[in-house]
Amino acid sequence: MNFSNIVQSTNEESDYVRNKLIEFNSQHVLNGRYEEVNLCLKNDKEEIIAGLNSAICWNWMEIDILWIRVDYREQGYGKKLLEEAEKISREKNCSFIKLNTFSFQAPDFYKKYGYKIIAVIENAPNDYKHYYLLKEAQSQNQCLTVSQSAVGGCIQSEYQLYSDQD
């Protein structure tokens, strides 16, 4: 068999590979779940002015995108979308919320609302930084410990949920 024929995959082929990984993961983590949680905000003309795309995976929510149209920024819409996502994550019994952002985007915005930086990659892209942030979603009695290590030039982080009662 010739394995040197690597080609760019189609969307259908990419979905197949993704579904195979989900199938594999499901064999190792019981009660797995994946649910998209996508929110948008429209103005009185029904134009989308802001949106948040996220997914609930197992016991966490991952926010992929939070976008606000330029002329609607600094008016509290990002906060409203973030608060709604956090409310949904609590309703769905998520332990934490994770997300990533660049230094030219909104790390200070997320820190303002309680997200903690757990990893930073320098020069990604160019002279910017790529931040990974996390916020616990359940009770105030639970905390997350984070350990980080550099492996092969990449940062790996490990999370452990514990109660402050421990």
TrEMBL record:
PROSITE patterns recorded: GNAT
Domain N-acetyltransferase: 1-138
Keywords, in A-Z order: Ribonucleoprotein, Ribosomal protein
Pfam families: Acetyltransf_1
GO molecular function: acyltransferase activity, transferring groups other than amino-acyl groups
Entry keyword Ribonucleoprotein: yes
Matches recorded under InterPro entries: Acyl_CoA_acyltransferase, GNAT_dom
GO cellular component: ribosome
This protein's name: Ribosomal protein S18 acetylase RimI-like enzyme
Protein source organism: Fontibacillus solani
Classification lineage: Bacteria, Bacillati, Bacillota, Bacilli, Bacillales
